[in-house]
Amino acid sequence: MRAAPVLLALLLGCGSGEAPTPAPEPTPAPAPVLPDARPVIPGSEPYAPPIPAQLELPPFAAARVLERPTLDLVSVRVVVPRGAADDPGDDWGVAALTAEMMEQGAGDMDGFALSLAAERLGADIAVVARRDYSLATLDVVASQLGPALRLLADVVLRPRFDADEWERTKGLWLEDLAARAFEPRSVAGVAGDVALYGSGHGYGRPVDGFLQSVRGLKREDVVAFHRSAWRVDDATFVAVGKVTAAGLRKAVAEAFSDVPLPDGPRSAQGSPRAPTKAWGRFVIVDRPKSPQTVLRLAWPGPTMDADDRAPLDLVDFVLGGSFTSRLNSNLREDKGYTYGARSRLPTTRGAGAFVAGAAVQAEVTGKAMKELLAELEGIAKTGPTVEETAKARASLRNDDVQAYETVAGAADRVALLAGLGLPARFDADHAAARSRQTPEAVAEAARFFFPDRALVVAVGDKAAILEQLAEEGIDLGEPRMSDAEGDPAK
Q1: Phi, psi at 128, each rounded to 5°
Q2: How far apart (Å, rounded) are the C-alpha atoms in residues 241 and 238?
Q3: Cα separation of 359 and 369, whole Å?
Q4: Domain residue spans in the chain?
Q5: CB neighbours (10 Å) of residue 147?
Q6: b/e per residue, 33-72, with b = 16+ CB within 10 A?
Q7: CB 209 within 8 Å of CB 31
């Protein structure tokens, strides 16, 4: 057996007559210098998004082109200024169904043959309706632009609208609308828009329509909407990629050479009126025993080209426009009430709605509502800090860069501006306007976010919602009950 080190030292020391020398304390190693892993916010130097060239490109009313000669790709968008907000009469959903049917066969080809022809060219063709406009899209390698444009011309000008295909497409559409009732976020959006605008307003109904309105649609309705809305003399042609003005004139002339002259005047691109709170302040869509509550606050917002839109964009980014926003940091990161809380300003031709909200655990509905209101009131009273504003400016600058960094992304952005009736240089001017905002202007704009005008929509267990709001001292008045389609609940 070995002697304990201390005892051995004492024995040796006694034998020599000298006190043992204590061992020196070890010198600690210097701490390693680790790199700073915190993200560095890039500088806020202004970025000027590119301004498309504007060409005369018959038979189209206008053309916007961005040349990217180093990329062997071309993205084309044909934009018409008629969308879901222009659905006539009670034919709600007809713009969206027209767009869907245009993909299901055109010219001499049925839907399968059309898809196969596009695939052989390496092309992707689609048609979609938005609230304020509709567009047909084409993405293709530059060497196949000519034949791909001829396919696109068939889709835009000569959709087949086959009767059998209509019945199949309408049936699938109705199935999707029936399934929408089981998506709480979608229900909150539908019920909220109806409550804010009224279903007779262009923004008061969902783009894809209501169950009852789509049931009543006939094949003749989509044929008539296509005839009135999809006029190339009313459309903007957008091209981004490896193109030239001369090459586009030749390719477009060949693809769209036999365009019939439409009858009647061109569409007037008006702006829908501002929304009004048609249903009071508080709407509930009852979902008994639901494990979550979707909370949605909305009120009339600014148009894209409003004078105060630039500072409002900065404030909204700080409030709920990113993962590190105040709403998400509070309700998700700090409180753990939700997977995500967001806010957004409208992207519409007319006065759309500002929306803020989150899907939260049912048992914290009242607490979450209290935090939502507190964050809105807080930013409205004091505005963002200087640091928050600088981060918002830099992040939105990066968003501008990302919007234009790909051919397809740039085409989509240029098409959006055309569809909303905004000038080709809008993004460049708006980016410059954001960079000029003073702290005083941003703080003044923040007053918009006071939630006193908010329409509140809650999708969840009615009894639990009302009980928890009362516990938190939140008085939103007597709720109006809505079903999943935005109609008064029976």
Answers
A1: -145, 150
A2: 10
A3: 11
A4: 53-255, 282-481
A5: 18
A6: eeeeeeeeeeebeebebbbbeebebebbbbbbbbbbeeee
A7: no
Q: Percentage of residues in the chain with pLDDT exceeding 90?
A: 82
Please tell me the number of Cα atoms within 13 Å of 262 on its side-chain side: 19
* Nearest residue to 103 via CA among 84, 127, 80: 127
Tokens describing residue 362: 């049912």
Q: By C-alpha distance, which of 216, 184, 226 is closest to 96?
A: 226
Per-residue pLDDT, 19? 45
Question: Same CATH fold, 282-481 and 53-255?
Answer: yes
Q: What's the mean pLDDT when you consider all of the chain?
A: 90
pLDDT digits (tens, 9 = 90+) for 65-116: 999 999 999 999 999 999 999 999 899 999 999 999 999 999 999 999 999 9
pTM: 0.87
In this structure, is the dihedral angle defined by the CA atoms of residues 478, 482, 488 and 490, taken in order, positive or negative? negative
User: Which CATH topology does 282-481 take?
Assistant: Cytochrome Bc1 Complex; Chain A, domain 1 (3.30.830)
| CATH, range 53-255 | 3.30.830.10
Rounded CA gap, 297 and 461, in Å?
18
* E strands, 108-195, in order: 109-110, 124-129, 134-141
- Give SS3 for 360: strand
Q: What is the pLDDT of residue 46?
A: 67
Return phi, psi of residue 300, to 5°.
Answer: -55, 135
How far apart are the C-alpha atoms of 352 and 355, rounded to whole Å?
A: 10
Identity of the residue numbered 357: G
- CB contact at 8 A, 273 and 85: no
Neighbouring CB atoms inside 10 A of 260's CB total 10
Q: Chain centroid to CA 432: how far?
A: 22
Residues sharing a CB contact under 8 Å with residue 335, sequence separation 6 or more, in sequence order: 364, 367, 368, 371
Q: What's the DSSP call for residue 332?
A: I
Q: What pLDDT band is residue 351 in, cutting at 50, 70 and 90?
A: confident
Neighbouring C-beta atoms of residue 281, cutoff 10 Å? 17
Bond preceding residue 59 cis, omega within 30 of 0: yes
CB 471 within 8 A of CB 366: yes
Is the CB of residue 102 less than 8 Å from the CB of residue 390? Answer: no
Q: What is the mean pLDDT of residues 50-61?
A: 96
